Amino acid sequence: MTLRRRLVMLVVGLSAIGLVVSTVVGTALLRRFVLHRVDRQLVSVSGFGGGRGRGAERGADGPGFGPGQNGPADPTNPTNLCRRDPRAQFGPQGIVTEFYRRDGSAVCDTQSGDDPGGGPAVQKGDLLRTGGRAFTLSGHSSGHEYRVVVNAFGNDVVVVRAIDLGEANATWRDQALAGALLSLATLIAIGVLGLWLVHRGLRPLEEITDTADAIAAGDRSQRAAVTDPSGEVGRLGLAFNTMLESIDAAFVEQQRSEDKLRQFVADASHELRTPLTSIRGYAELQLAGGAATPAKLETSMRNIKRESERMGGLVEDLLMLARMDREPQLQLSDVHLARLVDDAVADLRARDASRQVATAATAPVHVAGDEGRLRQVLANLVGNACTHTPAGTPIELSLSEHAGRAEIRVIDHGHGVPAEMREHIFERFARLDPSRTRASGGAGLGLAIVSAIVSAHRGVVRVEPTPGGGATFVVSLPLTAVSTTDGPERAASGASVPLAEPGAIVAQALSPARSGLNG
Description:
By secondary structure, the protein is α+β, with helices and mostly antiparallel strands. The protein has eleven helices and 13 strands.
């Protein structure tokens, strides 16, 4: 059964219960009111023959005497009662008056006059119910009921007064019938109106269902229309749309990750294929006797060694990234960054004495970190600047403290990094040269390693354009890289402490991706 049908049936059912209860209670109250009014009519005329004393007080002109009687007489005398005007037995306001002895016999032949019910069917036991309290008796004619009051009329005579309830019963029965018909019409109207209102109220749910069906069919651009965001259905529509946006974003991210993975596999295969091809070629040359002379043999062995070292370095870099991706462990200590910068400058001058190298440091800066890993960061950045700038191009290194963070800048004046590549420059196998020749750089893992190490220290690394041309790589590290609960003793002890969640490193530096420039 559908929700719409259940709601309509619930509304109609509750309405039916309410209408039936109201009709029954209203009819019962109306019947009680009508009987109470009839009883008041009977009581209002019950003074006639209320007892011997009351009958005597009415004197010779009392209603118990027939026409033409003069002078006092005994009102309980059967002769006087029977000589009474027969029309008085069907008294005012349709009240029937009859006289009985206490043994149940009629004082005289009772005549009901114009009463269609033939008067109440009085039994001997009914004559004992004196006292003026009304009760109901059946009439002599079938289908008639009477409201009856019995009063004493002397020692041995009682007077019975009754009113036919035909009109009163017809009143409340007509009221009950009218209430039933009105309730039925009301239920029909409630059912029709409720069906329309429920259909209108559930229309947004149907639209959400249609939208879900369309999305299941492959159209992920569909969204549920929300007209009233404050209502329950409106909030459901908003939540549904929010869920769809999240799903779409997840699909886009999944597709992007798959594209990056494909590119990563292609780049890794290319990087590994080149040294493997060289090694295989020299090995085949040796087997074919092409290196018969000692000089040729030495050249082949030297080239095989060079390519194997190149391939081994690539594998080592990938393994290091994988280890840091899984759970980066750093040997923490108090690191003097100015000394690291000076050592990097010295290494650069020893590597390329033709370059001008400038340094700038505002003050000694210390951080809690892994000194070996931070030295690798500076070595990769400086080596990247040497590789991707013309010979003799000056390189600058600076160290400063700003807003509670240490900033190391490696500034070159080469060709710089295009704006569209800056966002992807720290991804694995990211290179500017799509041909991936050896002359244009390494495998593209140097900057990815830099990003992974800096992220493990809860720092950030970015690239900015150098004024006048070139690229500036900025490494920003917090001055306190460990929490206060670790304490300075642990930071200085060289204990192995994970400084970043693995998922953060995966998202920032170690996801399989391609773009930008890496040394």
